[in-house]
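Hallway conversation turned thread

IA: we were arguing at lunch whether anyone had actually written out LysR family transcriptional regulator end to end. Turns out nobody had. So, for the record, here is the sequence (304 residues) and right after it the structure tokens. Reply here if something looks off.
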Amino acid sequence: MMLDDRTLRYLSTVARAGSLRAAARELGVAPSAVQRTLAAAERRVGCPLFERGPEGARPTEAGRVVVQHAQEREDLDVHLAARLSRVTAAAEGGVTVALGLGFVEDFATRVLPGFMRKHPRVLVRIVTGGTGEVVATLLRDDADLAVALHPAPDRRLRVVRGTPQPVGLACAPGQSLAAGGSESITPSALAGERMAVLPQGFGLRALHDDVLRAHAVEVDVVMESDSQPAIVAAVAAGQVVALLPPVTVKRAVEAEVVRLVPVDDAHLSRVRAALLTRTGRRLSPAAVALLSSCQAWFDPEVLL
């Protein structure tokens, strides 16, 4: 029993997107094409791979096995390409990576040192921006790969790896909203809070505004900055609170100067980080090598 690469890609996309319709948008095909592919795969394996319901499609136990197999095959392909690149030409050249602002520090400390030790003659160029800027840079071919927070589905983008980045409320440990251990809060608890936000045009700012609007919550925005380290510093000082993903506050949480409190909101809890390339673009050996290094970084236990 074998499932071809196209089928495995469709099944992985359904699992990641959470529904057949969302997967179809990401793949750039009709929902009926995804439905037919899924039905054919289930006939092939002889059991259901997804449970369909009002909230979308969730993998069954067999489905999780197949999706994991698909990811392992993709990882093996990337690993093979990386090994070949080391044999052929990855020792030299250049690679450009576009990073969402919240990922810069983690990339610089967890990915870059090891990569540069292995490939000392490769020039690594880093460009940064919000999710929209990062995606646009990738689609213009001004970057070989990108890391972005919760990019919109786009068939021009290939999601090489995704990992959860549930947005929570960053606050100082002594702040009243941090009380209660690891218990979550509701969006209504933010009413009247002094908050820091990113400027308009950033995906995280749009998410902030959408969540507060959906729950009819009014807050006091007292700081606006495109520097996430500046926002984290203000949070640690107890001057503001902010809605931020785990990767942005990881160091501050480890230092116990900031707490990240879960927020009971479906949109915030479903936010994911994505490692991206442009669909159809042939990567240079240096880019393939860096992509391989980023794969391990996207292990949830590492990035979270």
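OS: looked through it. Residues 26 and 153 are 5 Å apart (CA to CA).
IA: good, adding that to the notes. The chain has a mean pLDDT of 89.
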